[in-house]
Structures are given as structure tokens and as C-alpha cells.
Design goal:
By secondary structure, the chain is of the alpha/beta class. Helix content is 30%, strand content 32%. The chain contains 10 helices and 14 strands. It is globular, with a radius of gyration of 22 Å.
Amino acid sequence: MLPAISIKNVKKSFGSKQVLKNLNLEVNKGTIFGFLGPNGAGKTTTIRCLMDFIRPDAGSITIFGNKANTNSSNLKKIIGYLPAENQLINNWNGKEHLKFYNSIKKGKIKYKIFEELEINPNIPVKELSSGNRQKLGFILSLVGMPELLILDEPTRGLDPILQNKVYKILQDFVIEGKTVFISSHNLDEVERICSDVGIIRDGHIVADMNMSSIKAIKTHIIDATFYNKVPDIPKIPGLTILAKNDNKLSLKVQGNINGIIQILAKYDLSNLEINHATLEEIFMDYYKIKS
């Protein structure tokens, strides 16, 4: 079966700055693929190449077996796209945008989606909050029953309830055999809805994994306070002691935290805090091990 997206040896420079460096990536049909990386890693440049808004200096991109830079017009008919910065018309409302998109994509969208995502289609864009602009952009990406969605930070600015509604729409979309390519900084989001993940760093892919693999690099920071002196904690895989003094202990745990929690529970704790490391911190740890 042909992949939904195939990127081979793609390079892209802007002046003297090389942004993409021999980028290789495949996205299978019928999946939600998470595209992760810190700011400046090359995520948006990759997406712009996929959409043929810019063209690689070298290498090839195919979408459903068609070359992205020679079949661009036809491919755009079956791709739904949400850019990082929505290009909406300030004086138009949601209905007017939808009518315009319907005339181009020759397709319909379930009108109740405005209600589901809690956005009034009669309000002009200039009066919408940034979150509602994001929702409108997402709605428009669904027009025309696309086979592929390419989404750049689709839930940015949305509260958790609305994020869950977007996730449900995307999961239903894939159940129909369609494909989603989603760029995100949100590891929890990617863990929840993606089956495969690619991590980009400095313009090339440093990891291409299924979700079970990326969960293994998830990092927690644990701060424990004891009533008495900090005990000696046995070494276990993935555990790093960040700080230790008097009755306080700070730990970094990569992967499953159940083992260290069971160990700490044996002692007289006065306080225990568990936090996710930031995605950037997780990347840095991962790169240090894998690069």
C-alpha cells in the first residue's frame, strides 16, 4: 500500500540557512501522525513544502503516490489544511467563509459542527477571539470531505473541553480510513490521539516511532519532602537524582513512574509533587541519548 505521505531526502534553505537537511519521513494511510519538534526545528517549513507553497531545493515529496510539486492543484482538492496563522477575512463571518470554501472544494460539511465547537457562524472574524478563529480555521479544513488533513497546532488556544471535541472529530475522521498529519508541541495531545510520531530536530528526523515507543521517553519531575532525613534511594532504570538536601529530594524519571512511587511510599512523606517535564526538556534528554 502506498503511504499517504512520503518525504525523501528533502533539503530546503533560506539564504545561507539550511532549514531541512535530508528529511525522510513516511506517514501511513488511516493514521493520525504526530509531527513533533521545538520551535525552529523545521515543522512549519515541512508543512509548507507538503502544501507546495514552497518547494524543496532537493529531494521528493509524494502524497498518495502523486508528486506534491507537479500535482499540487489536484492534491489540494483532497487535502484539508490548517496553517499556523489562519488567513481569514476580517469582515466575513463563519457562514461566508464556509460558502466560499464550499464553492472551491465542491463539498459540504455538517453545519452542526459550529454548535459542537461552540462558535457563532454569524459573527465577523474581526470580532472573534483567537480561540474562535482557531476553531473556524479547523472547521474550514474539513470542507470537501478531504482524504488528508494537514494541521499545524490545531488546538492552540482551545480549552480542554473543546480540545476533546476536536480529538473526537479527528478520531472519527480516521475511522473512515482517512489520514491526519498534525504538528504539535503538546505531548499529552499527541499521546492521546496519535498512533505514530516523528520528531524533527535541526531539520532532520531524529526519531520515527509508534506511540508505545514515545511513551518510553516521557519524563516526570518528582519532588518529595520527608518528615525526616532524605533516605537512600536505590538506583532504578530511568531515574536521575536532580537535588538532595536535608529532607527534600528532586528526581527526574524517564518512562514509567510506578517503580519509584512504590519506593517513595515506603517512607514517611510530608509532601509529594509529580509534574510532567516540558516537551523541550523531553526532547533534550532524548537527543542527548540518541543523537
